[in-house]
Structure formats: structure tokens, C-alpha cells
Design a protein that fits this description.
The chain is an alpha/beta fold and about 190 residues long. Helices cover about 25% and strands about 30% of the residues. The protein contains four helices and eight strands. The strands form two sheets. Strands 1-5-6-7-8-4 form a six-stranded mixed β-sheet. The radius of gyration is 17 Å and the shape is globular.
Length: about 190
């Protein structure tokens, strides 16, 4: 993070050295994924992800005439179906999030509100903000309107790299602030 200031961590617990390293990997992933300048999609975070974190459970391999579904630990490795439908991997999230950031060109994490790790799992609750100052979003021209929101993420880190990522975020709260929805049409 040379030349960049990391958002402050407000609450954490004592961690082992291995857990601290896992937290550092996750924060680096988030630093890139939430940077309009650095996130150019999956290639921006690939060095921080396991080789199989880019494979969707729906990926297939052709074996002669048979088709075998590749299941990664019987789980989807990125899960946020209401906020990023169809996005199933940490690398896919970087792709999808780079599109959001084209509209919110000043989006950034303001703080890591809660951070802790237990062995290979890292939990982040974070606050972010941004304004619609970039590209149009779903046909809505940039308005300059600002939004602030919170989200939580649980990461699984294997061998020093992000393997899985589950995100909880109320995108409608953000969308209302930005004027990207008119009322309760998604309620």
C-alpha cells in the first residue's frame, strides 16, 4: 500500500501472526477491489486469490463425451445473490465491482469498523462512501449525489490467498441515496 493510507480499524481483537497475515491479504484485496483506479476487474486481484477461486461451481470440463461439474468444496466461493446476482467467485466480484465503480468514481472504504480472524476466516464490517460522479448507471446520468453505507464480508483464506467471500450489503440503501431508485419498487 505504498503511498496510500489504509482506512482505520475501529475494533479488532488480538490475533495470531497467521491470522494477522490473513487479515492483511483480505484488506489488500478490499483495497484493490474498492479502488476506482486499481480495480480493472479480475486481473487486478488474481495475485491475491487461490487458483481455484476463479472457478464457478457451474464451470465445466469436457472429458471425452462426458461432462463433469467442478464443485469447489460443494460451495459457491462468492455469495451475495441479492446484491451481485450471477457473481460466484472473488474474481467475478472484482469484475462486477469495477462496473459499479465506473459510476461511483470516488468510491472508497472510510473505515474497517470490525475486523477479526479465526484461523483461516476473516470477518470485516466496513463503511464506504462515494458519489455518482463517473459514468451513467443503468441509463441514469451522473448526478453528483453522495451515498454512505456499511457492509460485512466473511473471507476464507487458504495458503495466504483469498479462497471464498460472502458479502452482506443493503445496496438499496445506497441506491436510494444516489437516486437510482424512486421509492420502494424493490421492497
Amino acid at each position: 500500500m505504498a503511498g496510500e493510507t489504509e482506512p482505520p480499524t475501529k475494533t479488532s481483537t488480538q490475533q495470531t501472526d497467521a491470522e494477522e497475515k490473513n487479515i492483511a491479504v483480505v484488506k489488500d484485496y478490499m483495497r484493490i477491489a474498492y479502488s476506482p483506479k486499481l480495480n480493472k476487474g479480475r486481473s487486478s486481484v488474481a495475485h491475491l486469490c487461490t487458483d481455484d477461486s476463479g472457478k464457478s461451481p457451474k464451470d465445466t470440463e469436457i472429458l471425452g463425451r462426458a461432462v463433469r461439474i467442478i464443485l469447489i468444496c460443494d460451495a459457491i466461493v462468492f455469495d451475495a445473490p441479492t446484491t451481485f446476482p450471477g457473481c460466484e467467485t472473488p474474481l467475478g466480484y472484482a469484475d462486477s465491482h469495477s462496473k459499479v465503480m465506473s459510476a461511483l468514481a470516488d468510491l472508497h472504504i472510510t473505515s474497517f469498523d470490525i475486523v477479526f480472524a479465526k484461523e483461516g476466516h476473516v470477518l470485516l464490517r466496513y463503511s464506504a462512501e462515494g458519489s455518482h460522479c463517473g459514468e451513467p448507471h443503468n441509463g441514469i446520468e451522473p448526478s453528483g449525489r453522495k451515498a454512505k453505507w456499511h457492509a460485512a464480508a466473511i473471507f476464507e483464506v487458504r495458503d495466504g490467498k483469498v479462497y471464498s467471500f460472502t458479502k452482506e450489503w443493503d445496496k438499496l440503501h445506497m441506491w436510494k441515496q444516489l437516486g437510482w431508485m424512486k421509492g420502494d419498487e424493490y421492497a
